[in-house]
Amino acid sequence: MTAWLLPENVEDVLPPQAWRMEDMRRALLDLFRSRGYQLVIPPLMEYLDSLLTGVGGDLDLKTFKLVDQLSGRLMGVRADITPQVARIDAHLLAANTVNRLCYAGSVLHTQSDGFHRSREPIQIGAELYGEAGAEADLEILTLMLQGLSACGVKTVQIDIGHVGVYRALAQEAGLSGELEHQLFGALQAKDSSAVAVLTAGLPIVLRDAFAALPQLYGDRSVLAEARARLPQLAAIEAALDTLEVLDRGLVNVEAAYDLAELRGYGYHSGVVFAAYTGGRSHAIAQGGRYDEVGRVFGRARPATGFSLDLRELAMASSNTQ
């Protein structure tokens, strides 16, 4: 018998797992609809400049590219649906002051990563455009938690950060280029020794602030500690105010705050969060605020949302029951 091999990190989904994933898709979309989110179905492929505009640095290497035989232009198979939804918000639904949008569909990655272990995730998510306040971030976080519960995930831990804290410190320090890139990496790795070396030439107030970031991880007490240890910059105070609003709104939720969490730094502009369950090392859902995503489409405005992979969610859910 011929062995029909699939590409690495690409696989069939068989019953009963396929039905389980379909039940989750329906449950999530029904939930989104009940909360006023409207379904959009973007195309599987687009011209490359549209797919990568605004987030190209993060998605370029993940995107499969091909030539359109009709126009001769370079096209891409989507690696993330969020930029497509931003284009829809900016151009096709621009008459609306606020848009609550949701989606579900396959995406394709050139390589697997820690979050999407499959190279063909089935991405589902919700986006809220036009609301700038912390209440919008709380709405999205709450919707994500409700969605996970509807899919049978019993216990969830949320890790929450805010890229505005690091951005405010980097701007105050005048960091740029290679130094900012290296410091970013050191903070992500929570490498306190490297942080100390890279900030040695800065004023002591800023040195101490950067050194504090990897240590500012834990329960809600971290927020008060951050106010005591970090400079009283307006952007930092605003970021901490936002995190406190989220903390008050997340009732009976296990939440940890991490001020050195810079995931998606080039893409996100405010709150970032990820959901974990069952001792799994990779997130089952993640999201945050990305106010600049629509600028390149001609409509820069507040935006926040989350997404998850149905494949990962199905496995996580079955392991927690």
From TrEMBL:
GO molecular function: glycosyltransferase activity
GO CC annotation terms, alphabetical: cytoplasm
Entry keyword Amino-acid biosynthesis: yes
Record-annotated Class II Histidinyl-tRNA synthetase (HisRS)-like catalytic core domain positions: 10-313
Protein origin, superkingdom: Bacteria
Signal peptide annotation: none
Sorted UniProt keywords: Amino-acid biosynthesis, Cytoplasm, Glycosyltransferase, Histidine biosynthesis, Transferase
Protein's GO biological process: L-histidine biosynthetic process
UniProt pathway annotation: Amino-acid biosynthesis; L-histidine biosynthesis; L-histidine from 5-phospho-alpha-D-ribose 1-diphosphate: step 1/9
Ligand binding (L-histidine): 80-82, 123, 127, 263
Annotated localization: Cytoplasm
Function: Required for the first step of histidine biosynthesis. May allow the feedback regulation of ATP phosphoribosyltransferase activity by histidine.
Note: This function is generally fulfilled by the C-terminal part of HisG, which is missing in some bacteria such as this one.
Family statement: Belongs to the class-II aminoacyl-tRNA synthetase family. HisZ subfamily.
PANTHER family: HISTIDINE--TRNA LIGASE (PTHR11476:SF7), HISTIDYL-TRNA SYNTHETASE (PTHR11476)
Subunit relationships: Heteromultimer composed of HisG and HisZ subunits.
Listed name of the protein: ATP phosphoribosyltransferase regulatory subunit
Species this chain originates from: Thiobacillus denitrificans
